[in-house]
Amino acid sequence: MDQQQHPVDSPPPKEDMVGCVMALEAALLPCLPARELQAIDRSPHPSHQIDVERHARDFMEAAEKLQLYFIGLQREDQPTKAEKLQKEIAMMEEELKTKNELIKKQERMIQGWRKELKDQLERHNTELERV
Asked: Any residues with CB less than 8 A from the CB of 104 and at least 6 apart, and which?
């Protein structure tokens, strides 16, 4: 499976990996030596049976190693808990920075309004004193 199909942010689930390996097993199982598989039916000799069992066992061990390899790749693609937390902290810090900037902007607006209201009050008071 190439990473274009499964981006790093969303690695394939373990079940998909297992399914892939099982499909691979099903596809490769017929590749076991046909003559040796047929020999079980034709020959009473236990050596033929043992030979086929050895091939089957070797194949299944290789398939299991491949499965573990795929699962290992999946784990490598997934960020660690620490990496996930660092990313979350970075996002929160960015959000905090944005909100702090917004608060400062709003505080400046409020200060401007206070100054305008104070100036307006002084004008009104001055006008009232004249009258």
From this structure: none
